[in-house]
Amino acid sequence: MKYPSPLAAPFTRRKFVTLAGATALIPLGAGAQATFPSRPMSLLVPFTAGGPSDVGARVIATELTRLLGQPVVLENLPGASGALAVQKLLRAPADGHTLLYGGMSESLLVPMINPALGYRPDSMLPLSMITTGPVVVIAKPDFPANSMDELVALARKNPGKFSYGSGGIGSFAHVMGELVSQRAGISMVHVPYKGGPQIVTDVMGGQIEFGINTLAGVAQAIAARQVKAIAVSSRERVPTIKDVPTFHESTALKGLEMGVWAFAFTTPGTPAPVVARLNQAINTALMAPAVQAHRVRVGADLPVLTTPEQSRAYIAAQQQFYEPVTRGIKPE
Questions:
Q1: φ/ψ (deg, to 5) at 301
Q2: Looking at residue 29, what DSSP letter applies?
Q3: Is the pTM of this model over 0.70?
Q4: Yes or no: is domain 135-241 CATH 3.40.190.10?
Q5: Does residue 1 register a pLDDT over 90?
């Protein structure tokens, strides 16, 4: 099966930035600016405090508080692979005062795998893309593979022997691991965890051979040489780990490009002027020096300023890209 790049459709990344730059910061009417927000706002985070999503959300919340003139208060709602936070957003009044820092797992993959959760990837109203970034495949420093082609060769000789850890069934790492296995024609054992830190610990201890995580989640362990990075999922090498080859450089995964992302969402039915004001504020916040500095620290991509329409189109393209592999995954 040929897997198209999820960043290639329905528009190129360069066009994505250009369109958003031309439309996302249009000044709003005085009425919308004067009436919203009228009280403190909530930013729902589907994970516990201290993790990459929580830290990123706090940086954005600080800027939004400054821009919107009302406190933007974080509410951590871990559980059900992030679905609890999504469900609370969908129950909130459609007035724009409740936002969700929605990552790829809970916003896209989990509802595709488990319809019983009661929502779909298009159930929420996307406001703007907040971040994108690659994932990294890690192993113990002495593991006898230093690239995806070497890893694939070993896995083909030892079907079902190697295991990889992810943040749970339906998480981005789980789905990406299954997609890589399908594309490369290998068989690995999936081991679900409740969080990224334990994955790194178990890779170091040899309980599992591989881990799949965001660069932010493994950068410290890589720098300390506690684990080694075998490959990164971006099309081009990442400057902070420039010696690590990409999936695209391998023969087995040539042309495969994947990445994690997060969008700001609000409740469907929110009035258009409020949606426009939120989009404007979020895109302005993304360009703030503090947010840019955080992006550099965690190895995230350059900001992509998107309209709600572009955000919805991007998520729809991602759904189409990952749907074939999610069909074969059973919910917990």
A1: -75, 170
A2: P
A3: yes
A4: yes
A5: no
